[in-house]
Every structure is written in structure tokens, then in C-alpha cells.
Amino acid sequence: MNKGIANYNVGELFDYFMLVRAANKGIASNGKPFLTLLLKDVSGEIEAKLWEATSEDEELFVPEQLVKVTGEVNQFRGRSQLKIHSIRPAQSTDGVHPNDFIEKAPVEKDELMARITEIIFEMKNPNLQRIVRYFIKKYQEALLTYPAAVKNHHEYVSGLAYHIVSMLNLAKELKVLYPDINKDLLYAGVILHDLGKTKELSGVTAPSYTLEGKLIGHIPIMVEEIGQAARELQIETEEVTILQHMVLSHHGKAEWGSPTPPLVREAELLHLIDLIDAKMNMLNRSLEKVKPGEFTDRLFAMDNRAFYRPLFDE
Amino acid sequence: MNKGIANYNVGELFDYFMLVRAANKGIASNGKPFLTLLLKDVSGEIEAKLWEATSEDEELFVPEQLVKVTGEVNQFRGRSQLKIHSIRPAQSTDGVHPNDFIEKAPVEKDELMARITEIIFEMKNPNLQRIVRYFIKKYQEALLTYPAAVKNHHEYVSGLAYHIVSMLNLAKELKVLYPDINKDLLYAGVILHDLGKTKELSGVTAPSYTLEGKLIGHIPIMVEEIGQAARELQIETEEVTILQHMVLSHHGKAEWGSPTPPLVREAELLHLIDLIDAKMNMLNRSLEKVKPGEFTDRLFAMDNRAFYRPLFDE
Amino acid sequence: MNKGIANYNVGELFDYFMLVRAANKGIASNGKPFLTLLLKDVSGEIEAKLWEATSEDEELFVPEQLVKVTGEVNQFRGRSQLKIHSIRPAQSTDGVHPNDFIEKAPVEKDELMARITEIIFEMKNPNLQRIVRYFIKKYQEALLTYPAAVKNHHEYVSGLAYHIVSMLNLAKELKVLYPDINKDLLYAGVILHDLGKTKELSGVTAPSYTLEGKLIGHIPIMVEEIGQAARELQIETEEVTILQHMVLSHHGKAEWGSPTPPLVREAELLHLIDLIDAKMNMLNRSLEKVKPGEFTDRLFAMDNRAFYRPLFDE
Amino acid sequence: MNKGIANYNVGELFDYFMLVRAANKGIASNGKPFLTLLLKDVSGEIEAKLWEATSEDEELFVPEQLVKVTGEVNQFRGRSQLKIHSIRPAQSTDGVHPNDFIEKAPVEKDELMARITEIIFEMKNPNLQRIVRYFIKKYQEALLTYPAAVKNHHEYVSGLAYHIVSMLNLAKELKVLYPDINKDLLYAGVILHDLGKTKELSGVTAPSYTLEGKLIGHIPIMVEEIGQAARELQIETEEVTILQHMVLSHHGKAEWGSPTPPLVREAELLHLIDLIDAKMNMLNRSLEKVKPGEFTDRLFAMDNRAFYRPLFDE
Amino acid sequence: MNKGIANYNVGELFDYFMLVRAANKGIASNGKPFLTLLLKDVSGEIEAKLWEATSEDEELFVPEQLVKVTGEVNQFRGRSQLKIHSIRPAQSTDGVHPNDFIEKAPVEKDELMARITEIIFEMKNPNLQRIVRYFIKKYQEALLTYPAAVKNHHEYVSGLAYHIVSMLNLAKELKVLYPDINKDLLYAGVILHDLGKTKELSGVTAPSYTLEGKLIGHIPIMVEEIGQAARELQIETEEVTILQHMVLSHHGKAEWGSPTPPLVREAELLHLIDLIDAKMNMLNRSLEKVKPGEFTDRLFAMDNRAFYRPLFDE
Amino acid sequence: MNKGIANYNVGELFDYFMLVRAANKGIASNGKPFLTLLLKDVSGEIEAKLWEATSEDEELFVPEQLVKVTGEVNQFRGRSQLKIHSIRPAQSTDGVHPNDFIEKAPVEKDELMARITEIIFEMKNPNLQRIVRYFIKKYQEALLTYPAAVKNHHEYVSGLAYHIVSMLNLAKELKVLYPDINKDLLYAGVILHDLGKTKELSGVTAPSYTLEGKLIGHIPIMVEEIGQAARELQIETEEVTILQHMVLSHHGKAEWGSPTPPLVREAELLHLIDLIDAKMNMLNRSLEKVKPGEFTDRLFAMDNRAFYRPLFDE
Fold it and tell me: Does F92 map to a domain?
């Protein structure tokens, strides 16, 4: 395995595979077209210019395409840039896979699936359990591979499932501390709350927003899906409405995308658990990158705050 | 027909039918139960006390029940109150109907239906037309009788259909002034935008919010319904998503209940047309009640403003 | 023990002890002074009128005074009112204590203290541990008896300690789920965050805001206290500043009383844990009072929402 | 006529007239002054550098000056730039006029004037009619040539009159749908509402804000003008105050520049009509530039939304 | 002179003159009309009921009317109320004047006028001085008698002039501390800033908002007046625009009624001086009413804060 | 003395001392490290590049270091840049001092100290006077040299003391105009309100925020300091709490950093005086830089407004 593009110094020669994250066409001063490619591997991203690009190039080098590229790492206005010497699409015989070039959750898919299955097994309310099983079956592949977002938190392969499992663990502990909680309702809410992202986002490798994602959004998408599932499963009891409400209200406020705020205890908790897990994911990853005594960069999704890592330990 | 409860003076004897709008049980100082009834006819409402109420009374005098009542109009703390002499439920032989005791739109149901049908007939896009027809068929009775809201604007029988027809007329004129508009999309949006109210509200006669109305709300309800209709009609083209977006965004902003703001021209127009018709309905009805040179009461749904009726004419 | 004022019906005779919660003087239409007393026991509160009150009465019947009262439960404008037949201050020979007339945490003081001690014992950072021990020693009595607030949540005897212990339990579980957390810092923050309330509030029995509470508030009070403690303990390391920051930022935002928002991971968590425990306390107590299928009253401290209690179980 | 600067490719030679939109002096690395000119024709704008500019150049090449320029279209940091070979002011013998180099409303001045006259003729209230006629006479030239704004909507020659005529058409239709409207008041409000822009902006060709525009603004300017007109016409009836109120309140809210919100029905409508016409103008022009299935750029004056153009037709 | 209605006890007989502040007609339970009068003198206000009022009574007892009244001070629902025995309009022979029944500024009109004149004399800029003199002449009587507001601050006879003089004194000191200030501009702004109140309010004795006050407001009214004055005085220099800007911007922000915020140094200062003098007026009058160690009532115009009066002195 | 870096033209040779304001390391395209230095003297700042910087250079050229530098003033992308020919740290024999390279208050330290002393001498309340004296003694050096802020207003040597003295002068005049003011309390508040800045900021020469400054802030820091001082001086009266409240509330609102708003008259005044002096400082310095008839740059701390300097004089 290659050492990763982020670890190359200016002047070094790169000669390995990367994934095309984005590709934009431009016209150079000499009137000839060129491509600005954004290439990535698990370590990071680099911009690359392919001068005098042919129309064939334009068709070959598109997002999600894996490429073999050689070139020199330069610096242009303070940022690294790859000066491409040669580039070609990766072939099946190259033995590389796009998934090896994007970040992954720290836990394997199978393990995440096992944990979710275990929790579903603990549920006693048959209606909630059947609805959850319906979705696990219908979206299993996507559920286990999609990121939880395109940026900010859990923005990597299996990020969605990893986020769900962390929240389930938290939900389970809260049930111990506050026994009045209806754990089945909370578990079902946790598992389904962001599943609409599998329709909101275009895919795993280079996710962008779909038209449905932009115009409807994952929350109303999922509310509709639950309604449809209930009709198929012929469940007409209150569990359906309450579960739709859990999903609908999980952003907490109208300004944050929930037209109805949480009006059921477990819905309020779902919102809070989601907040904690997303924030811990952002904070831990940012704090890892700095040394004790330093501040992180400003975190946009944390109200633009920079966080301090204290000098002392437990 | 009776002259209407609002036109009785203090001291007069009332002896006719009214509709129970609300009923609440209380305990008097002597320890005996009593009922506070809110009775109404088309002219207005009056509070009435039924002292020493039996448990049979409690069961008889419930919301939506039509009653025959005699009593004297008194005044208590500046407000009229009916002192009940006798009261009994109306019977089929009385020849009265609840609908005669609640306010109605100024246009008849048949005429409203005819106008909607006419507009649907003008639509050329087959997918939009089929979806609209599906809903007209499915909800015809409710569409033609429900109010558009429980208060503020069009809060009377057939208010929803009347609101739709006014908006359709406005939409038709806008198409003339701005020919780029996709009129089929706008018509479809106008007809369907508030149809979820037929599930959000409990009924026509004494409407209150249903559980689904409180926890989900008419907007997500209708987004789901359109999805379901499309599946039944096997329509899978972009019209479905755009129509769902029209309904989803018609309140204009997240703070006002639309998690996605309008991102399609016709969706923006739908929001504006809805605004104009609702405001004109509120303003006209309030201004009718005051004389030239006076201000109306403060209108809660118009940012609590009191409006002035000028002295001069055209 | 008496059955509690909340369980008396209109017309019943009350003859037992209650605590004076508030006392206000008025002048009756006949020009004679009277006292409006708010009397309470653990079950609830009732208003009582003492007509033709003497100046001696005014001095006797003041907040926090325990009284023996006989009278009849009446109803006035829909609310219960006690018509006093006779009233006198309780005496030491009566064998009653004010604490028996106010609500208490569901866990005993000793047990709460034991749990806090246990947690402190787990702390490894000596500076944090010493500061926490300093405060436990200095404020032990108040810490174990004060409410956590005058209303909304944990507004009863030992409410503060009960709130701390719940939060410590939650903190301990979070450490398991997110091992990067500095648990010592989080524990210290939890134990100290609201301790300034013992200066902000006037006492346990009938708490009101002190002048210092109104003009400074429990957050700056506690920041100062930590600084003073550190000087006495001669601790000059970063732990002091970070701990002051934890307390200062625990309301999360400037608008909510924290001039600096959380800028340390454990400070962010402290804010979130505080939110969860306060909200669960409010929700559980409100939901207990309603039946499945009903909504609670609107909860002011939960953005005025009314919460629904579903019909179904786990 | 030239094909328009926006249609030149990199490398092409430009040799025609353009209008100076802005001119800024700079000092090059060699210490010599140069001019950065922004040149425009109806098709668009281009930046041009005039190196080693003399002080005479500085005086010649100023905003609103028409120039004859030859040069090569280059590209600099991704944007087109004109490398000037020669430049001179246009002369009367060149037969070109600044108005030919700026965008115009799609309807001719005479036609716009005719439509406004027609509407005024329909007015019956003599006071409103006289005031409107006073202003048409006083500001006819400016009214028919000014843009309605410097950017966002109707920002072209005759934009103001075009905006007024569109709004008048809309007002006329609304009168049919809602006959209670005082059409004379609404027409007068529409015609006068933005007339203060003729003092707020510096002119037609290259409009910027005047000092009066910056410190007072078109709304208070016009309120004063109406007061002055009424004194000259010796009209002292309520129409004057109401018309001033129409202008004052037409931005709808204090935050948007109306210290008093609309408190008269026709003032509320004026605000809504203004909103619709401005939004339709922005939306139509942005949507024309994109293909079906694409999103427009983000529109600043539409809350920074990007709008989608659907694939399907009516 | 009478001791003042606020100093009467329940049961006492009142027999003197008072001013009618407001009068509302009602219908009693017996179907007969009655008048609810709000009567006042300098000490305070009291509600009075005139039962079985004739239509002559309705015409006689209107706002601003001085009346001779005898009656008994009662108490009704905790508030004082005057039970009228007899009432008649005051007559010229009674030797009483409405002004004696309303609060006045602590400084006499003549003295206020002298101070304003003195300041105008110090002005050197002839244009500003002429405009100010124009207004002093035009509105002298109103300027010296009007209140500065209907409630909150300087809400008494000559309140406007008193407010102006306090602000002029403050402006003069600021000129000493910050010599860059253009004192003439600041003085002119101070004198004219609230003069529009003489058109916004209905009068001195029982001020309410005029139609012009409600629909236009004192700020745009005064901007127009300055424009008109300048035309009459044939002043066309920048002073006019800047002075209009001073008045227009003196509320500081759009949300507070200034569509343009201060963009000139002296305009910013005018806003701040206005704030200080209004706040000091409110604070001093509220703090006078409480004893050291107490809080005032909540002051609505001070963000609903209650202020503390400390125990210690200088 | 040198003419100041801001007065050099492009192409001129600079050969004198400057102060390093900031230093950042970069890597050039050739892979070699370079330093970007921000150099300053009293006239302004300039960016300078030190190519092929050694690790010794990195250690030598750090913030607050005085350097002797020769180089040519160039222009790069429209901004001046110094091309360094030679650079070395200043030595004690050079006879230059960092303080000569940073801006200073227009009044000398001694004079500022004398004025503060004079005011303290006027105070009569012994507790307030003792607390103020305690701080003057403890922080005299810092108080007289620190800036009042790192940017926006009084951001120069002795800025804090200069700000205090201006505010004291203003406070003294206000006491004359509003004699109810407790001048001792106001003086004490003025002197202490920003003293926490001496801990919030790192120093005088090149101030940045300390960790304590970022995590606690100057307001809570100073509240704690006053508490500590009172304990040392054994003052336990209300003056301590009120003085802490003055400091705590002087930003006026929670959103602006004061968790408690002013609840004492003198606290409200302190806030207003602080506002006036800060704003006058910003406005005067910005307006000095422009000519009559021009606007200043947008001032960030004045809500991003650009201010106009009128053409006319007093």
C-alpha cells in the first residue's frame, strides 16, 4: 500500500492509484481545454491539472473513477498541487477497489450489523420490531455502507451504521438510568432516524445530494417510507404515527428542519442522543489532530468554536 | 329561522336550537357538578351553565350535538351568558341539521366543485392531471366541506374549497401576466397544498386537531399521500418529487413549517398566492365589521396589527 | 400523617398542620386588613384567607412558619380555597417539622452522599480531586439539602444532590462509550456546576433569590469560589482555569447565561448531560400525572410544549 | 452592431465601442500608474488594464464615458480580461449612444407610458388622481428611464416603469378577484411607491447611490414629496396621509426599511404585489439561463436560494 | 388645594375636581347604560362608575373635561374605585384649570425657553441656526407644553422641552470632552429630533395618537417638515440632508423605527444622548418611589428589568 | 527618527528598525523554508518575506522582537511588500525601544495617573475608595500601559488608562446634570470595569489573548478579583456585591457577554458611558482619515457602517 498523498513532500514523485472526487473543465489562456481534478485516497486530497485534455479525457476522468497517476507534487499559492505526468483509468486487473481510497468507520460492517440485530432482538413491541426489521431488510446494504453525512460528522463509509450503533449503546444506558423510557420506541427511532439519507445522498464513494435530497430532504422522505411500510405490513396502530413523529422531530426545532418539535419523551431523547453522538464524533476527531495545550481549528458545525485540549490528564 | 343568538339583548328569552361547540364539567361551591356549554349558531356563540348536571346530561350534551334550549340571556362580568331553563337533544323530527348552525363559504359546494373540475380539465400534463384527479376522487367529500383552518382564515364549512378556488383564479391570472409559469404545476400545487388538513382536523362541524395533526401535521401528511398516490398510479417521473416539494415548501420558511424553502418557481408562487388569499380573507372580514374612519381589532395572524378603514372611496 | 391538602374535596373540613409558603396583606371592602396565605404540605398548595387580621397575625404567619389550621375547603372562581376557622403557629410540642411538609428527592441524603464520595474516590487527578473535596467539606450540608432550582426541575429538598448523582451516573456511562473523555474533569464539573445555587437561593424550605443571586448569579459566584479555593489549596495549574471554564460555560450559550460557550470537550458534555437530566426530570414528573393517550400541560421550561403519552408499551 | 463582449473567445480581437462602468487607478510594480477599467455593452462586462496611464487618461476614461477600444481577449486567473491595444473616447460622429450599451426593459417607453396613462384615466377619486398626475408630469422623463434598482431586479433602463406597469396589471386583476379593494388607492400606491428612486440613484447609465439616497433613502424621500405635492395642490384630505402611508409601509416590516408596517388593506396588497413582481423578474431571468434539470446560481435577494428548473412541461 | 385622590383611604368621601382621562359606555345587567370614567389629578388616577347614565351624561363626561365629583372611595377586586354620589362639569366660575390636574416638568416653560434660546444663540452655522429658529417660531407653544411621550419617560406637561434642555446640557459637555464634534449640528438635531411628536400626539392634557401619528409616525413627519422648511427658507446646502438624516436615524436601528441607522458622528451621538436622558428620567422617577434595599417595579421600557436601590451612599 | 513605513513609496529603500508583530513559517516551491514577517512602526505595518530562512532565523525573528532591516518596498497583488536585503535583531547599543514602535495614547502616563488619583480623592464612600486604591496599587503598571482592546478602540499603549480617564470626565459631568447619581459607585465602576483585561491580554507590545482570557474572559476574572480584594480588606458590606455587579453587567446584555444585565442605575450608566467613549474613539480616528464629503471604511465594531464626514463646519 502507498503511504498516502497527504504524506508526500513538495518535489516528490507520486506513482500510484487515486480516486477522482470531482472533475471540472476549464479553458487555458492558450484557448485549449484542461481538467481540474480533485484526487483522493484515505490520507487526504490533492488538486491536479490535466492540461490539453481531450474530449475522451473528459469522459474517462469523472467522479468515482479510480485512476493510476504519476506526477510531481508542487506547490501553487501555498497549496499542494499535483503536476500530472501520466494518468489512466484503473483496470480490473490492477487489483484496487474504490473503497480502499475512502475513509471507513473504525468498526467493520459485520460487527455493526450484529450489534443492530442484537438490539432488535431485545425489542418486545411487535409492531415496532416488525417495522424496524422491514427496513433493515429493505435497506441493509445501504444502511451498512452509507456515510451519516457528506461532511461534519461520520462522513465516511459505514458512518451511518456506526452512528446508529453508538446511539443505540447510549440509548441502552439511558434506559438503565431512566427506567420510564420506552426502550423499544427509542431503539426504533435511533435505527430509522437517518435512514432517509440513503435516498438523500447519491452514494457511498463520492456522495452528493440527489434531487429528491435537495427538494424533499431525508426527514420527509423517511416519514413517507414509514407510512408505506406500515401499509405493507398492515399495521394501523399508534406506533406508526409516533415513529413517524420521532423521525420528523429529531432535528429538535423548525429552524433546524423539524416542522414539529419533539412532543413525545423518547423523541426528545432521540434528538439529544443524536446531538451527543454527532458532537463527540466531531470533537474527538478534531482534538486528536492537536497537541495538549493547543486549540483545534474552528469547527463550523459547532457554532464555529475552536476547542482547547488541556495539558493535564485524568 | 331564528334571528341568531348574537342578536339577542340582555333580558330576552331564547327558545330555539343551537349546536354544542364545547362542553366542560365543573364542581359548584355546593359540591354538585355542573356543565359549562358553549353553544353556537351561524350568528355567533354564547356560554351557558347547566347547574346540577346529571351523568346522563354529561353524556348527552357533547360537542357536535344539536340541542333545543330555552333560557334567558343574562350578563356576567361584561359578557353575555345564557341561563338555561330547559335543554334537550334535537331529534330527527325537529327538522334541523348541524350544518345550518355553522358558518359556510359564500359559494355553494357544487359551484366550487365545478370550478375545480374546469381547471383540471385545462391541465395538459397527464401525470399532474392524473395525480390531482386521484385526490379529487379520494377526498371529494372532505375537500368540499372542510374548513381551511380552525381559526384566522376560511374557518367555515367549505372554507378549504373556497380558498382553493380563489387561489386557482389568482393563479390563472398570473399565468397571463407571467407566461413562463408552468400553470399545470401551479394548479396541481394549489389544489393539493392544504388537502392534508382533512387528516389534520377532526371534522367539519366542530374541528379540533387529531393526534396525527398534532404530531405530524398536514404538510408531511400530504407529502406522504402524494408518494402513495404516485405508487398506486405507477408514476415515477419528476412530477412526483416536484409536487411533493410544492406541498412541502408552501409555508415558505423552516420557521413557518416548511423544512425546505421553495426551490422551484411555481413553489415560490404557490406560497405567495396562499399568502395573498389568506390575508385578503382575514382583512375583508375584519374591515367589514368596522366603519370608515375606524381601526379593526388587532389581528393575531397579521402580526397583531389593527387595520384602518379609510374615510374615502374610489 | 394527614392525607394531604390536595386530596380534600370541596366541603370537607381540614384540621392539621401546613407550612406558610407566602403571606400577603390586603385591605377588605370594609376597610379592615386581611391576610392571603399560601399554605402547603407535600401533596400540594391551597390559598387561605384570614379575615380581620391583627398586626400580631401579620408577624406570626410568615413564610417558613409551620401552622396548625382548621377550616373548610371551599371553591372560589374554579379554584379551591381554605376558609380558615382557626389558625395558630405550630409549637415544638406538636412534634412536626417543616421538612415533613415539603417534597423531597426520592433518594435519601446519606445514599446521595455515599454515591458522590464513591465517585470522588475514583478520581485520579489530585488537583481536581482536592478542589472537589474542599467544596464537599465546605458546603456539605447545603449540597445535600438544597433544591436544584426554585421551579421547573429538581425543585425539592436534596434536589441539587439528586441532580448531581444522576448526572454522575450518566457521565460514568459516557466515559465507557467515549473513552477519550477525561472523566475526572467531567466528574469535577458535574459536582461543582450548580453549587453556587447554595448562595443564589435563600434556603431549603421556601427558597427565593438572594441579592447576590439576583445581581451576580450562581455561575459567577461559583467561578469566584473555585478561584478562592485554588488559592487556599495553593493549586496554580491549568486545572483551575479549566474547572472555572466548565462552570462558566455550562449553560451553553451567552443568551442562556454563559458569557463563554464551552471550549473544552468535557465542558460541552457537561452542558449536554445537564440538559438531559433536567429534561428527563421534568418530563417524567409531568407524564406520570397523565394517562396514556393524553397530553401533559404545557411545560414552560420545555419551550412551552405539551407532551403526549403514547397508548402502547414496550 | 457588434456581437457583444460576452460572446468573444480567448484570443479573439475586439474592436468596437463599450461603455465605461467604473474606473480605478493603481500603481504598478514599476511605480507607474495604470487604470483598471470595467467596460460593458448589453451582452456583459469585461475588465481591462490600461498600463502607463497618463493623467489625461484618468480624466478621459470615467464612468458613463463611451469609448472605442481595440484589444485582445485574454484570460487571467480564470476570468476574461481585455488587453488594450488602443482606446479613445467616442465622438459624436461615431454615431453611437450610451443607451445602446446598457440593457433595456423588454417594452418600449412609449408603450409603458401609454399603459400608465390608461390606468390613471380609470381612477375616479379626484384627489388621488391629481396627485398621481402631478408626479407623472414632474418626473416623467426619469420615471420612464430609471432602473427599479441597481441590482437584483429590473436593474435596466426603464426598469422602474416596467415594474410599475407589471404591478398595475396585477393590481387590476386583483380588483376583479377581490372587489372590496379600493383600486384607485392601490393604483396610486403602485405608481408612486418607488418614484423616490429617481432621487436615490445617480442616473440611468451607471447608477450609484446619491448622498441623499444613502442618508435618507427613497422611502422617506417620497413621503416628503407627496406632502409637498399635496400642499401645492391644496389637498388636505385623508388621501394624502394614506398615500404617504402606502409608500412608507411598502417594504412590509421595520427590519426591511418600513418604520410603519402596512395598516391599510391596500398597503398590505401593495407590499405583496411588489414582492411578487420583483421575485418573478429575478426568477424568470435566472431560470432562462439554465437548462431543464439544472439549478440556477444562488440568488442573493431570494435568501440565497438556488432554484431548480424541472424537466417536464405543462 | 385637595390632598390628591391617591391619598384617600377606603371609606373616605371625596368632594373636589378631577379631570376625565377616558370614558367608556357599558350596559348593566338590568339592561341600562352606565359610564366607566377614568378620573385623574396630579397625584394619580381612579376608576369611577356612573350608573344609569343618560345620553346627556355621555356627551358631558368626555376626555379632557374637568368635573366636580363627590363620592365614596370603595375597593373592588383589590383596586380602589370611586362610587359617584354626584358629578357635574366644572364651570369657568369654579376657578380650576385642567393643567392643574396633570403632572408638569420640574422646570417652568419660560426657563426652558430661555435655555433653548441661549443655545441657539451659540450656534455659528447660519443654515442650521435659521432652520432651528424657523421651527422654534412655528411650534413654540406646542414645543413648550407637549409631553415627550404618552408613557415611559417625560410623559407630562412640558416633558418635550424638558427632555430637549437636558439633552442640550449633555451635548454641551460632550463638546468639551470631544472637541471634534460639530456642536451646531448636534444642537440642531437635539432640538428638532422629537418635534414631530406635536403632530403625532393629539394634545397636552390627555394625549393619544393621531391618525397621522399611527400611520406615519413622528420621525417621517419631521423629516418632511425639515424639507419643507428648507424650501421656504431657500436653503439647498448639505445641512438640510444631514439634519433630516439626524432625525431619521435617531432611534438607532431599523427595528426601533429608524429606516437608516446613524451614518454621521453627530447622529450617533444624538441617539446615545437621547437614550441616556430617557433612561435617567425613567430610572430616577422609579427609584425615588422605593426605599434603599428594595427593587423597583419591572420597567417595561427598560427591557422589563426591576432595578435595585443600594443601601449605601456616596 | 525615521519617516515611518507607511510613508514609503514603491521602489524606495527602507533602512531602519521595525518591530516584529507576527512571524509565520512557510515552505517555498523549491522546498525551502521561508518566513513571512509582519513588521510595524507607529505609522503602520508591512509584510516582508525572508527567503531561505534558517532555523536560527526562526528563533530570532519572533513577535515583540525589534529588528534592523534593509530592503526595497515592492508591490504584490495591490499591497505593499518589503523585499528584505538584510535583517538582524536590534541590540541594546542601537538605542531603540519597542515602545517607540507602537502607537500611544495622546496623553502621558503620569498625567493619566494624576487624573485617576484626583478622582479617587474625591470619593467619600470609604469601602469603595479602599477597594479602588487596592487595585490601583496592585495593577498600577499594567493599568497605565495596557491597551483597552486588541483592536477596534483604544488599541494602543496606555489605551486602557486613557479610556478610563475619558469615562471619568464624562461621569463627572453626568453627576452635575443628574445629581441623584452615586458618583463614588460610578467612579469605582469606571476605574475597575476593564481592569481584567490586564489578565485577558498577554501584554502591551503585541497583545494576544491568554488562555485565561479565552476560557474565562476579563469580566468574570475581575468579578473574582473584587471578591478576593474584599476578603483581603475585610469588607463585607453591600458595596462589594454592587461593585461586582457593575463589572459583571457593563456589557449591557447576555448576548454581549454580561450574564446579568444592569440592575442598578449606576451600572446602566457605566454601560452607556463605556459605549459613548468607545464609539467616539473609533469615530474620531476614522473620520480624521477621510476628507469632508467622503465616507470612512466600514467599521466592523459599529455594525459595519461607513460614516459620512459632512462638508460644512460649525
Answer: yes
